[in-house]
Amino acid sequence: MTRKEFRALLAVYLTGLIIGTFMDLRISLSLHNARNIVGRMMNVGAMLPAAVIMSYCSGIVYWYCRSEYPMFRYLAALLPFMAGVASFREIGMWRELDLAVRIIVGLIIGIVIIAAFNIRKPVIYRDKFLLAGIILLAAIASSSTIGIMKFVWGRRRYYAMDDPLTQFVPWYQLHPFASSDLYRSFPSGHTGFGSLVLFLVYLPEMTDLKISRNLLRAISIGWILVVMYSRIIYGAHFLSDVSCGAIIGLVVYYSAQKEVRKLTEFIDF
Fold this sequence. Notes:
Elements (H helix, E strand, L loop, with lengths): L2 H29 L5 H9 L2 H21 L4 H4 L1 H10 L11 H22 L5 H28 L10 H4 L21 H6 L8 H5 L5 H22 L4 H25 L6
Helix pairs in contact: 1-12, 2-11, 3-5, 3-6, 3-7, 5-6, 7-12, 11-12
């Protein structure tokens, strides 16, 4: 992503945040439809691409450490397990599951990732290892930032309101220390974490596949916009929520991209 593209996309998201500041409630009242198929499908799958990317990157780091840093191979083997627990936590009803079930599912995901790399035995060189590590750090940065902001803002979700006309609160009014997910509307985690799909532009480097970067860029941006729209329809977020989440995801991606350019030979355009 060039600086010009970054600024253009940032301007779009900032415009959404500004419009949402004045029209959040009106937009949600017009668009909300809990039965909408797009809203329901994206509620389950909006974060799936980012989760898969994280899991794959954890496998790359594990496989590289296994051969280049044998003393850390057991520690690195924990990464696929941790990625399974962390990255899939928002998919479907995952966050409603008991901790024990999450650990078991995460363990299964970790075993599958490790087994896949052991079967395929890919050649992982240093630049690919660094790329995967940066993507994982970007995911941590995005999730941590959004998680802290949700806790501090404490904004009530649209679908948690009995009477939106009297219970609506604009995003700039904080109600800190949210005790329930029903009060964690701002910013949108699905949009912020889901924006990691932008890393799809590095798919040729990660998989050695010949794929058009322009096509991958268009798919990733289109996916983010659909996620933003679907979260408003579903009633989980307001326009300002998804716009802020998209801004966080974009800034994290652009910052990570700079590190990729600095530390590796990879570029994304």
